Structure formats: C-alpha cells, structure tokens
Amino acid sequence: MSLPSLPIILKIGRGSHGIMQNPYTDSTGQLTFKVDLKNAADVFLVDSNNYRNYNSGQKYEYFGGNYTQTPVTISVQGTVRWYLIVQGEGQYQYRFY
C-alpha cells in the first residue's frame, strides 16, 4: 500500500540554530519520510550541505513546510545524507523508508 505524499516544496530559509541532534539517514536514490505530529510544526528535510548552513545561521534550501495535519509524508531523491528537522512544540514520531 502506497502512502499519499504531499507535494515536494523546495524553499530557502535562514538558520539561526546552534549545533543540534537531528535524525538522519543516507539515501541511495529515493527516500520517503513520514512524521506523526502531536501539534502543528515546521517539518523539513535538508541534505548535508544545507544542514551545515542551517546550523550556522546561513541561508539553506529545504523540502517541507508548516504542517497542521498528520501524518506528514515527503519524498525526495538523491544519493546523499538527509536530515529531518521538526520545529514546534510537542512530540513526534518519524520513519524513513
């Protein structure tokens, strides 16, 4: 059974975050991630270069956005390391596949 996915949205943001511990995974092609939220949150996926930019307060590109409904499902492509970032109050659960 295929999970419905939201459109992939590529955006540019500006980070102002110290070094953080975020879940990550290495992709060898297509990657989908699913996040179950307790509350509305900003949910996005960044590659290694953009993760460094995010943590150092520089401009970065990401896939995702602000979500008020759960689950959030986003798919991306590329043979890179992807980091999941969830900003907002409350707990969440995630799964890469």
Sketch the major β-sheet. Answer: 5 strands, antiparallel
Radius of gyration: 13 Å
How much is the average pLDDT? 82
Write down the overall geometry: globular
In terms of DSSP E residues, the strand content is over 45%
Element-level helix/strand string = EEEEHEEEE
Structural class: mainly beta
Return residue spans where pLDDT drops below 50 for at least 5 consecutive residues.
1-14, 16-20
Proportion of helical residues: under 10%
Tally of DSSP β-strands: 8
Number of helices: 1
Q: What oligomeric state is this? A: single chain
Describe the protein's architecture and organization.
The chain has 97 residues and is mainly beta. It is 8% helix and 54% strand. It contains 1 helix and 8 strands. The strands form 2 sheets. It has a 5-stranded antiparallel beta sheet, with helices on one face. The chain has a 3-stranded antiparallel beta sheet with strand order 6-3-8, with no helix packed on it. The longest helix is centred in the middle third of the chain and has 8 residues, at 48-55.
